[in-house]
Amino acid sequence: MSAPTLLGVSLKMYFGHHETLNWARRVGDLAARHPAVTGGLTEVFVLPAFPGIVPVHSVLAGTGVTVGAQDLATEDRGPYTGEVSGPYLKEIGCSYAEVGHAERRRLFGEGDTVVAAKTAAALRSGLTPVLCVGELDRAEPAEAAERTTAELARILDTAARHGADAGRVVVAYEPQWAIGAPEPASAEHITTVCAALTDWLTARPRYAESRVIYGGSAGPGLLGRLGDGVDGLFLGRFAHDPAAVGLILDEISARGAVKAGA
Ligand SMILES: O=C(CO)COP(=O)(O)O
Predict the structure, then answer these.
(1) Is ipTM strictly over 0.90?
(2) Is residue 19 annotated as part of the catalytic site, yes or no?
């Protein structure tokens, strides 16, 4: 069987605490009985705000949905007021830690050096980094592929030079101009860039089992247009309605049925 489609959701800072738990209950109920999840066609992960991690982890226990954080500290312990470390996140049940999101770069001044250090911190703690990369402005697919692959190489090579462990990385291709937009990048754009990122990772055994997913106004209807070259989706706003998550799980089932029949 081919690798499961990865479906990630970042709740960013959209929901309050009770909204977060209600959403998690509804998505958990859906996932627990959806054939795409129970049949192993997909792996679903959710990134709530930090205070939501522990309760969401317990709400989702047994549903097949895993939990991660939207950020983590570069360091593992010490005088870093307001930060949350990788070991702490691991201890409270996280499997993933997102690094390098465009909003953290734009609003909080994070650059490649910090993103590389956070990637290393995640790997060191046994968390899968969800490493966001993507061009700032609209570009032709081939140019976007070149720029984004160079960005990925810069970050992972810096992390490796500083002694980062080898391990699985989820690369989230998120063209910055497509985040918070009415619609995602075109299927041609997404597949061209994701193929280039996959080639780069495949040539490096230290990142074995790594995956490339697409985010940026992704929602129902997109996955079916992307083909096998894209390993999954990273959802923002269009996951706020749990029914939309259900529709995407239906699409994953359909994709699995096509593959099984191929
Ligand atoms: O940034 C994103 C996921 O990390 C995408 O957000 P939107 O789908 O809301 O554009």
Answers:
(1) yes
(2) no
